[in-house]
Amino acid sequence: MRGKQVSGKAMLVLCLASFFAGSLFSTTSRTWSSTSTSLDDDHDDDQPNEVHPFPVVSKYHIHNHLDDKGKSQGTAALVTQTNCNDDHKRKLVEGKSGVDIMGEVAKTHQAIKSLDNTISTLEMELAAARASNQRISTSSADYINPNRHKAFVVIGINTAFSSQKRRKSVRETWMPTGGELKRLEKEKGIVLRFVIGMSATPGGLLDRAIEAEEAEHNDFLRLNHVEGYHELSTKTRLYFSTAISIWDAEFYVKVDDDVHLNLGMLATTLARHRAKPRIYIGCMKSGPVLYQKGVKYHEPEYWKFGEQGNKYFRHATGQIYAISKDLAAYISTNLPILHRYANEDVSLGSWFIGLEVEHIDERSMCCATHPDCERMTQAGNVCVASFDWKCSGICNSVERMKDVHNLCGEGTGAVWNLDL
After folding, report:
1. Signal peptide location in the record (predicted)?
2. Which of 68, 201, 249, 263 could make an S-S bridge to 74, C-beta 3.0–4.6 Å?
3. Cis preceding linkage at 371, omega within 30
4. Neighbouring C-beta atoms of residue 213, cutoff 10 Å
5. For 192-243, what is each residue's pLDDT tens digit?
6. How far apart are alpha carbons 158 and 137 in whole angstroms?
7. H/E element holding 223?
C-alpha cells in the first residue's frame, strides 16, 4: 500500500461508499430502535418512557407500514383510515347516546301520564264512594232495616186534605176497612194505605183533621212532605222511599183516590210477573210535551225534550202504576238526585228510562167506566182499574164510585180466594 500511490479518483469513490454505508447503518439502527421500544411498551408498562425522535405507532401500523414496502403514500393512507374509523366510532357512540336519551325521556313522559290517569281514577272512585255513603246515610238507612214487614204488594192511595169524601167513597166500595184491612194484610200480604203529607202549617186544622181520621180508621201513611199540587213528583219519590223502609214487598203500587180498583185482579196480574226483575207496569202512553204557559200539564222544561211539538218518552199514566221491589229500592237509594218534572207520571218514567227496565203495557189498568168496564166484567175479563180519561179519574167520583163498583166490581170474595 505504501509502495502504490492511490489516485484521487479512487479516494473519492471510497469516501462516498463509506458515507453511504454509514448512512444506511444509522437509518436501520434508528428504525429497529423505534420498533423495539414500541414492543417493549406493549409488554412492559412499568419501564420508563423514552423520548424518541419520531412518533411511536402501534404494531398494527408498523406491520402495514412494512408490508407497504416503505411507501409514504401507504403510511399517510393508513393514518387517514385510522382517523376516519375513530370518527365513525365516535359518531356511532354519540348517536346511540342521543337515541338512548330520547328513549328515556319518552319512557318518563309515559310514566307520568300513567300516574296522572291512576290518580284521576282513584279520585273518581273516592268521590263515588263518598256520594254512595252520603246517599245511604241520608235516604236508605231505613231500607236496610231487617225488621220490615213482609208483604206481597203495598198499595198507596194518593189523597189530599180536601179529599175526605173521596176517601169515604173508597172505604165504602173496594177498600176493606177495620179488621178486614188487617186480615187482608196478614193473610194475603196486601197492604193498603192512604198516602198524605203535612200541611203548610204543622199542627194546624188540616193536620188535626187527618189525625182524627187516622185514629178512627188506622189506614194512613204520613209523609214528611208539604202537600201541594205542584209537589206531586216529590211526593211520589217520598212515597216509594217511605213504603220500602216499612214493608219488604214484591211490588209497590200508586193509585189515585178517584179510581176504582179490583184488588183480586190487581194481585193476580202482578203475580204473573213476580219472577221478573225491574218491572214497571201500567197503561203506557207518550203524550205531547205542552210548552204553552197557562195550560194544564204545562211542562216548564219542555226544551229538554227537543223541538216544540215533540212527545214524551213512554211512561205509565199517573192514575195507577206498579213497580217491582228493586225499582222502589233504586228510587230510595237515589232519592236526592232524581229529577222532578212538572208531571209526576213523567218524572217516574224518566227515572227508569236509562235503566234495564221492562215496561209492561197493561191495558186492563185503564178501563173506562160504564159501559166499557161493565161489558168486560160480563165477558169474564174483569178490569184491574177503571176511570174516565176526560177527568183523569172517575168524574164525580164521590157520587159515582158506588155505581162503578156495582157494575164493574169483581165481587167481595175474589180477593179472599187468591192463592199467592
Report:
1. 1-26
2. 68
3. yes
4. 17
5. 999 999 999 988 999 999 999 999 999 999 999 999 877 899 999 999 999 9
6. 27
7. strand 220-226
